[in-house]
Amino acid sequence: MSGSRPGILLVNLGTPEAPTAAAVRRYLGEFLSDRRVVEIPALVWQPILRGIILNVRPRKSARAYAKVWTERGSPLAAITIGQAEALQARFGDSAVVDYAMRYGRPAIAERIAALKAQGCDRILIAALYPQYCAATTASVHDAAFAALGAMRWQPAIRTLPPYPDHPAYIAALAASVRGQLDALDFVPDAIVASFHGMPERTRDLGDPYHDQCQLTARRLSEALGRDLTIAFQSRFGRARWLEPATDATLERLAREGVRKVAVIAPGFAADCLETLEELAIAGRAQFLAAGGESFAYLSCLNDGDEGIDMLATVIGEQLQGWIPSA
Questions:
Q1: Which partner from 1, 101, 286, 322 sits 20 to 30 angstroms from 231, CA to CA?
Q2: What is the arithmetic mean of pLDDT over 293-313?
Q3: Distance CA 250, CA 293 (A)
Q4: What are phi and psi of 71, to 5 degrees?
Q5: C-alpha gyration radius of the chain
Q6: Which of 197, 177, 32 is nearest to 103 (CA)?
Q7: How far is 53 from 74, CA to CA, in rounded Å?
Q8: pLDDT digits (tens, 9 = 90+) for 77-112
Q9: 195: part of which helix (H) or strand (E)?
Q10: Do 178 and 215 contact (CB within 8 A), yes or no?
Q11: Architecture in CATH of 167-297
Q12: How far apart are CA 224 and CA 235, in angstroms?
C-alpha cells in the first residue's frame, strides 16, 4: 500500500443552484436526461422533455424550492457539506473527505480529479443512498466510472454498498426517531415511513429497491417496537409507480379516523425538497384537510451525531486495508 491517504467522495442526488426557474430548468434538464432515471428511448423522450416538461415544470418546482431555501442555500447542499466536514473531522489525517452531486455542482468528475490532485490514489465512492436503486446508486457509479474512463492514471476505486439493514443504520434511525417523538407534544396514532417512489416496471425488471425499502422499514419497526405504515412519494408521469402512494396514504389514514401522524423518510440521507416541501408542508396540508388533527415530520439523520456515527461506521468498513485499524 502506498503512503498516500485514500479519498472518500460523498455523493448525493443534487440540487439547483438557486430557487429560480432558470436554475431548476438546468438541473432538471440534466437529471431527466439520465437514461438511468428515465428509461425511455431518447428519440421519444427528449422531444417531450425539451418541448413540454422543461417549459412547464421549472416554474412550479422553483416555487417549491423557494419554500425550503435557506441562508446557506439548498438544504441538501448545506447538509451534504456538513456531512463531509464532520466525517473529515472523524477520519482526521487518515483520509481526505470531499463531496459531489450527481446532477449539478460540484460534479463527480471534478471532485474525483481534485482528490487525485491531492495525491489520493485510492478513492471510495460513497453514494448516500441506503437502499440500492439503478436510478440513484448505479447512476452515481456510472458517472464515476465515466470520469475514470477519461483519466490516463486512474486511482483504485471502491464503492459503498447499500446498507438497508446495517445495524448501525437501523440503530441511528431508531435513536433519531425516538428522540424526535419524545419532543412532540402529542403521541402519534400512526408513523408513516415514506420512501421515494420508482416506476413499478423497475421492480419487474429486477431492481431491488422496493424490497430493500421494505427491509429497512421492517428492521426499524422491530427496533422501535411499533408498526410502521410504508408508502412511496414523488410520483411523476403516467406510468404506474410503487404503491401505496404517500399522499393517498395520509388522506386514507385521516378518513379512517387516525388523528395524529408522524412521518419519517428513512430512504433519504439528507433533508431536501422531497422531505421539507413534499412531506413537511404538502403532506401536512393533505392530512389536515382530510380530517387529521396533528402532524409531524421527523427529520432525516442529516449531519447530526447519530447520522455521522453511522456514516463513519459503514464507510470505515469499506476502508479496511486503506487506513489503519482503529
A1: 101
A2: 98
A3: 12
A4: -65, -25
A5: 20
A6: 32
A7: 22
A8: 999 999 999 999 999 999 999 999 999 999 999 999
A9: strand 190-196
A10: no
A11: 3-Layer(aba) Sandwich (3.40)
A12: 28
0.70 surpassed by pTM: yes
Q: How far apart are CA 248 and CA 201, in angstroms?
A: 20
What are the grid coordinates assigned to 301, written together? 439523520
Q: Residue ranges of the domains in the chain?
A: 7-163+306-318, 167-297
Report d(CA 306, CA 242) in Å as an integer. Answer: 29
Q: Please give the torsion angle defined by the CA atoms of residues 50, 51, 52 and 55, in that order, rounded to the nearest 10 degrees.
A: 70
C-alpha cell at 98: 470531499
For 111-130, how does the pLDDT look when each residue is reduced to its tens digit (9 = 90+)? 999 999 999 999 999 999 99
Longest dimension (CA), the chain: 63
- What is the CATH class of 7-163+306-318? alpha beta
- How far apart CA 283 and CA 276 sit, in angstroms, is 10
* Alpha-carbon distances, residue 241 vs 133, 194, 211, 246 (angstroms): 14, 14, 14, 11
* Angle in degrees, 0-180, between the axes of helices 305-318 and 75-91, rounded to the nearest 10: 60
State the Cα–Cα distance between residues 134 and 215, nearest whole angstrom. Answer: 18
Spatial contact of 25 and 104, defined as CB atoms under 8 Å apart: no
